[in-house]
């Protein structure tokens, strides 16, 4: 093919496709053609969901504490001696060593506790928190009700997205008779 016929073929092909390039919204479909329509209104379609959740609920609680003074070594020793003597008298010939030791231990613990004295009582406030079940209403968009105008007629269609200012429409023409 010579240079002139190649340029002429390219020029004809360019001119033939120019209308399709001028309007990217226009195209042909097997059953019609694709055009664009002006969007008039877009309304989001929303649903409210009742969602379970939990939140922390905190409150102040008063607690009473008893404070005792330090134990004296003398009370522990005296209790152990008295306990050992009592344990020694309770046991028979075979169990006397064991009851003496047991009596000394119990007497030592009791003597320690008694030697601390009565002490004093005080109250503190403590924060307590619980996780409480609750429900929260959440709204979410599930689609859009789109109203558009094509050749003077108004149409409404539900879509899954907001199309913007223009929407593509498929136009088909069929004979009635």
Task: Give a quick summary of the entry.
With 177 residues, the chain is α+β, with helices and mostly antiparallel strands. It contains three helices and five strands, in the order αββααβββ. Strands 1, 2, 3, 4 and 5 form a five-stranded antiparallel β-sheet that branches.
Please outline the major beta sheet.
5 strands, antiparallel
Q: Between the first and last Cα atoms, what is the distance in angstroms? A: 51 Å
Helicity level, as a percent range?
A: 25-40%
Number of separate strands: 5
User: Which band does the percent of strand residues land in?
Assistant: over 45%
Q: What is the 3D form? A: rod-shaped
The helix-strand sequence is HEEHHEEE
Q: SS-based structural class?
A: alpha+beta
Instruction: Please tally the helical runs, counting DSSP H or I stretches of 4 or more residues.
Output: 3
What is the overall pLDDT average? 80
Nearest-angstrom radius of gyration?
48 Å
Low-confidence runs of at least 5 consecutive residues: 18-25
What would you note in describing this structure?
The protein has 177 residues and is α+β, with helices and mostly antiparallel strands. 33% of the residues lie in helices and 47% in strands. The protein is built from 3 helices and 5 strands. The longest helix has 20 residues, at 3-22. The chain is rod-shaped and about 130 Å long. The two termini are 51 Å apart. Mean pLDDT is 80; it is low at 18-25.
